[in-house]
Write a structure and sequence with these properties.
Belongs to the copper/topaquinone oxidase family. One of its GO terms (molecular function) is quinone binding. This is Amine oxidase. It comes from Sinocyclocheilus grahami (Dianchi golden-line fish). Its EC number is 1.4.3.-. By secondary structure, the protein is mainly β. It has one domain. Helices cover 3% and strands 23% of the residues. Strands 1-4-5 form a three-stranded antiparallel beta sheet, with no helix packed on it. Strands 2-3-6 form a three-stranded antiparallel beta sheet, with no helix packed on it. The protein has a two-stranded antiparallel ribbon with strand order 7-8. Strand 7 and strand 8 form a beta hairpin. The chain starts with 6 loop residues before the first strand and ends in a 24-residue tail after the last strand. The relative contact order is 0.19.
Length: 194
Amino acid sequence: ETERSAAFRFGKKFPKYLHFYNPNQNNKWGHKKGYRIQYNSHANSVLPRGWREENGISWSRYPLAVTRHKDNEATSSSIYTQNDPWEPVVSFEEFIRNNENIVNQDLVAWVTVGFLHIPHSEDIPNTATPGSTVGFFLRPFNFFDEDPSLASHSTVIVRPDEKGQPKVQRWTPEDVGHCVSDKPFFYNGTYAGV
Protein backbone atom coordinates (compact mmCIF):
# COMPACT_ATOMS: atom_id res chain seq x y z
CA GLU A 1 0.00 0.00 0.00
CA THR A 2 3.01 2.31 0.34
CA GLU A 3 6.04 3.17 -1.76
CA ARG A 4 8.45 1.53 0.69
CA SER A 5 6.45 -1.73 0.77
CA ALA A 6 6.40 -1.76 -3.05
CA ALA A 7 10.17 -1.33 -3.36
CA PHE A 8 11.59 -4.84 -3.71
CA ARG A 9 15.33 -5.12 -3.02
CA PHE A 10 17.62 -7.44 -4.90
CA GLY A 11 18.28 -10.57 -2.89
CA LYS A 12 14.96 -10.38 -1.02
CA LYS A 13 11.76 -12.32 -1.68
CA PHE A 14 10.21 -11.14 -4.95
CA PRO A 15 6.63 -11.79 -6.11
CA LYS A 16 6.24 -14.32 -8.92
CA TYR A 17 3.32 -12.38 -10.38
CA LEU A 18 3.28 -8.57 -10.54
CA HIS A 19 -0.24 -7.33 -11.17
CA PHE A 20 -1.43 -3.72 -11.20
CA TYR A 21 -5.14 -3.07 -11.40
CA ASN A 22 -7.68 -0.28 -11.19
CA PRO A 23 -10.13 -1.02 -8.36
CA ASN A 24 -12.69 1.28 -9.97
CA GLN A 25 -12.89 -0.32 -13.43
CA ASN A 26 -14.11 -3.81 -14.29
CA ASN A 27 -14.22 -5.62 -17.60
CA LYS A 28 -17.53 -7.11 -18.71
CA TRP A 29 -16.74 -10.29 -16.74
CA GLY A 30 -16.50 -8.32 -13.48
CA HIS A 31 -12.71 -8.58 -13.15
CA LYS A 32 -10.58 -5.55 -12.28
CA LYS A 33 -8.86 -4.08 -15.33
CA GLY A 34 -5.11 -4.11 -15.01
CA TYR A 35 -1.66 -4.92 -16.28
CA ARG A 36 1.01 -7.45 -15.44
CA ILE A 37 4.77 -6.96 -15.51
CA GLN A 38 6.48 -10.09 -16.78
CA TYR A 39 10.26 -10.21 -16.32
CA ASN A 40 12.73 -11.48 -18.92
CA SER A 41 15.88 -10.55 -17.06
CA HIS A 42 18.32 -11.72 -14.44
CA ALA A 43 19.72 -8.43 -13.23
CA ASN A 44 21.32 -8.03 -9.84
CA SER A 45 22.83 -5.23 -7.77
CA VAL A 46 25.63 -3.43 -9.60
CA LEU A 47 27.58 -2.25 -6.56
CA PRO A 48 27.36 -3.35 -2.93
CA ARG A 49 25.26 -1.20 -0.62
CA GLY A 50 27.51 1.12 1.33
CA TRP A 51 29.96 1.94 -1.45
CA ARG A 52 29.97 5.72 -1.76
CA GLU A 53 29.62 5.53 -5.57
CA GLU A 54 26.48 3.39 -5.17
CA ASN A 55 24.59 6.51 -4.01
CA GLY A 56 24.57 7.67 -7.62
CA ILE A 57 22.77 4.55 -8.82
CA SER A 58 20.40 3.87 -5.93
CA TRP A 59 17.80 2.70 -8.47
CA SER A 60 19.99 -0.40 -8.94
CA ARG A 61 19.03 -1.63 -5.47
CA TYR A 62 15.61 -2.70 -6.75
CA PRO A 63 14.38 -4.99 -9.52
CA LEU A 64 11.06 -3.19 -9.06
CA ALA A 65 9.97 -0.12 -7.14
CA VAL A 66 6.53 1.45 -7.41
CA THR A 67 5.99 5.13 -6.65
CA ARG A 68 3.25 7.71 -7.03
CA HIS A 69 3.52 9.60 -10.28
CA LYS A 70 5.09 13.02 -9.90
CA ASP A 71 6.12 15.37 -12.70
CA ASN A 72 9.37 16.22 -10.92
CA GLU A 73 10.37 12.52 -10.76
CA ALA A 74 10.81 11.95 -14.49
CA THR A 75 14.03 9.92 -14.46
CA SER A 76 15.74 7.65 -11.95
CA SER A 77 19.16 9.19 -12.55
CA SER A 78 20.94 12.01 -14.35
CA ILE A 79 23.82 12.29 -16.83
CA TYR A 80 25.53 14.47 -14.21
CA THR A 81 25.73 11.53 -11.78
CA GLN A 82 28.94 10.41 -13.49
CA ASN A 83 30.57 13.67 -12.34
CA ASP A 84 29.50 13.34 -8.70
CA PRO A 85 28.07 9.91 -7.80
CA TRP A 86 28.70 10.58 -4.10
CA GLU A 87 26.06 13.32 -3.94
CA PRO A 88 23.96 12.84 -7.09
CA VAL A 89 21.69 15.49 -8.58
CA VAL A 90 18.89 12.90 -8.75
CA SER A 91 18.66 10.37 -5.94
CA PHE A 92 16.19 7.59 -6.68
CA GLU A 93 16.14 6.65 -3.00
CA GLU A 94 14.44 10.00 -2.29
CA PHE A 95 11.49 8.91 -4.49
CA ILE A 96 10.55 6.20 -2.00
CA ARG A 97 11.90 7.69 1.23
CA ASN A 98 8.71 9.68 1.91
CA ASN A 99 6.76 6.36 1.78
CA GLU A 100 3.56 7.81 0.32
CA ASN A 101 0.38 5.76 -0.03
CA ILE A 102 0.02 4.28 -3.55
CA VAL A 103 -3.54 2.93 -3.33
CA ASN A 104 -5.86 4.46 -5.96
CA GLN A 105 -3.07 6.70 -7.29
CA ASP A 106 -1.38 7.18 -10.66
CA LEU A 107 1.67 4.95 -10.38
CA VAL A 108 5.11 4.54 -11.92
CA ALA A 109 6.73 1.09 -11.96
CA TRP A 110 10.52 1.49 -11.99
CA VAL A 111 11.83 -1.77 -13.49
CA THR A 112 15.53 -2.64 -13.44
CA VAL A 113 16.65 -5.13 -16.08
CA GLY A 114 20.08 -6.34 -17.06
CA PHE A 115 22.56 -9.16 -17.05
CA LEU A 116 26.16 -9.67 -16.12
CA HIS A 117 28.59 -9.72 -19.05
CA ILE A 118 32.15 -10.78 -18.33
CA PRO A 119 34.35 -9.93 -21.33
CA HIS A 120 35.89 -12.99 -22.99
CA SER A 121 37.86 -13.83 -26.15
CA GLU A 122 34.71 -14.64 -28.14
CA ASP A 123 33.75 -10.97 -27.90
CA ILE A 124 36.38 -10.20 -30.57
CA PRO A 125 35.69 -8.65 -33.07
CA ASN A 126 32.19 -8.00 -31.74
CA THR A 127 30.07 -8.97 -28.76
CA ALA A 128 27.33 -11.33 -29.88
CA THR A 129 23.93 -10.78 -28.34
CA PRO A 130 21.96 -14.04 -28.91
CA GLY A 131 20.97 -15.43 -25.55
CA SER A 132 21.83 -12.13 -23.85
CA THR A 133 18.43 -10.55 -24.06
CA VAL A 134 16.91 -8.65 -21.19
CA GLY A 135 13.72 -6.78 -20.65
CA PHE A 136 10.18 -7.14 -19.48
CA PHE A 137 6.70 -7.27 -20.92
CA LEU A 138 3.86 -5.00 -19.88
CA ARG A 139 0.88 -7.23 -20.58
CA PRO A 140 -2.83 -6.50 -20.26
CA PHE A 141 -4.44 -8.52 -17.46
CA ASN A 142 -8.26 -8.57 -17.58
CA PHE A 143 -7.98 -5.21 -19.31
CA PHE A 144 -9.88 -6.34 -22.40
CA ASP A 145 -13.12 -8.30 -22.51
CA GLU A 146 -11.56 -10.73 -25.00
CA ASP A 147 -8.38 -11.22 -27.01
CA PRO A 148 -7.93 -7.82 -28.74
CA SER A 149 -6.43 -9.50 -31.82
CA LEU A 150 -9.95 -10.69 -32.69
CA ALA A 151 -10.56 -7.16 -34.01
CA SER A 152 -7.81 -7.70 -36.61
CA HIS A 153 -9.72 -9.37 -39.42
CA SER A 154 -6.87 -9.37 -41.95
CA THR A 155 -3.88 -10.22 -39.79
CA VAL A 156 -0.79 -11.44 -41.65
CA ILE A 157 2.70 -12.56 -40.67
CA VAL A 158 5.53 -11.87 -43.12
CA ARG A 159 8.63 -14.06 -42.82
CA PRO A 160 11.44 -14.95 -45.20
CA ASP A 161 11.07 -18.29 -47.01
CA GLU A 162 13.90 -20.75 -47.76
CA LYS A 163 15.27 -18.44 -50.47
CA GLY A 164 15.04 -15.32 -48.33
CA GLN A 165 12.00 -14.02 -50.17
CA PRO A 166 9.02 -12.66 -48.22
CA LYS A 167 6.41 -15.28 -47.41
CA VAL A 168 2.98 -14.05 -46.30
CA GLN A 169 1.09 -16.20 -43.83
CA ARG A 170 -2.57 -15.30 -43.52
CA TRP A 171 -4.74 -16.09 -40.54
CA THR A 172 -7.77 -16.30 -42.77
CA PRO A 173 -7.88 -17.98 -46.16
CA GLU A 174 -7.56 -15.75 -49.22
CA ASP A 175 -10.77 -17.28 -50.63
CA VAL A 176 -13.24 -17.50 -47.80
CA GLY A 177 -15.73 -20.25 -48.39
CA HIS A 178 -18.31 -21.84 -46.17
CA CYS A 179 -16.36 -22.21 -42.92
CA VAL A 180 -19.13 -21.91 -40.35
CA SER A 181 -21.23 -24.82 -39.15
CA ASP A 182 -24.96 -24.82 -39.85
CA LYS A 183 -25.55 -25.89 -36.24
CA PRO A 184 -25.86 -23.16 -33.59
CA PHE A 185 -22.88 -22.85 -31.26
CA PHE A 186 -23.24 -24.54 -27.89
CA TYR A 187 -20.80 -24.81 -24.99
CA ASN A 188 -21.62 -26.75 -21.83
CA GLY A 189 -18.68 -25.40 -19.78
CA THR A 190 -16.32 -28.36 -20.18
CA TYR A 191 -13.79 -29.51 -22.72
CA ALA A 192 -15.49 -32.87 -23.06
CA GLY A 193 -18.00 -33.60 -25.80
CA VAL A 194 -21.63 -32.59 -25.42
